[in-house]
Amino acid sequence: NAIASPLNRKLALLVGINQYPGNSPLSGCITDVELQKELLIHRFGFVASDILTLTDKQATKTEIENAFLNHLTAQARSDDRVIFHFSGYGRCLQLSNKAEKGITTINSLVTSDDGIDNDLPEQTLELLLQSLITPHITTILDTGFLFPRVAPNYLKVRSLPGLDQWQLTPQELAFQQEIKDKQQFFKQLPLILKATANGVAVEGQWTGFSAGLFTYALTQYLWEATPTN
């Protein structure tokens, strides 16, 4: 198991957002971060100081991007292990310029910024992942991109309605170009573990806590399946 290897450094960036200005709050995303952190320390040998967490107001788009570059990209070496986890809202963006590379929609992670510019597009995330020198990357997205018309009332959906006529801001385009200019791209895009293949992700309530169904199932399985370091 590459993550459990005792050799080389292990770095993690864990993001969980419950509180969203202007939107209904979620309740299990910070629990997801706590579950992942405990798992990484006690089952995969991560050092607590090498795990950076961003929650609620800390998890703005700028802070997530900067944390990725400074905590992961700048520090990771070729054989290090890297984890990126996001729990929060996602959504689908309908691009205003549909002719751009034939792409009409993109998915985004919704950050905690108070305003309209709070989408971290998957294009940017992919560039950040590809800028890592190590191939040993695990990415977990406990978020949804499809907003369902009907959902069970005992589950909270982790997606927002899509946005029409959306376009990348000049600042985001400049940030993407900065990554391309400064970083050497070392590999194909690594496998990303998503909460669901159809775009809908949910969180549930257990006795005393709420968590993402995907994160809860994943962490509980790995607790049982992975020997103690």
Question: How is the topology of this model organized?
Answer:
Blueprint: E1 10-16, H1 29-44, E2 51-55, H2 61-73, E3 81-87, E4 90-95, E5 105-110, E6 119-121, H3 122-130, E7 137-142, E8 156-157, E9 163-166, H4 170-182, E10 192-194, E11 202-206, E12 209-212, H5 213-225
Parallel strand pairs: 1-2, 1-3, 3-7, 4-9, 7-10
Antiparallel strand pairs: 4-5, 5-6, 8-11, 11-12
Helix pairs in contact: 1-5, 3-4
Number of helices: 5
Counted beta strands: 12
Strand content: 25-35%
Shape summary = globular
Task: Please explain how this structure is put together.
With 229 residues, the protein is of the alpha/beta class. It contains five helices and twelve strands. The strands form three sheets. Strands 2-1-3-7-10 form a five-stranded parallel sheet, sandwiched between helices. Helix 1 (29-44) runs parallel beside helix 5 (213-225) and helix 3 (122-130) packs parallel to helix 4. The protein starts with 9 loop residues before the first strand and ends with a helix. 39% of the residues are buried. The model has no long low-confidence stretch (mean pLDDT 88).
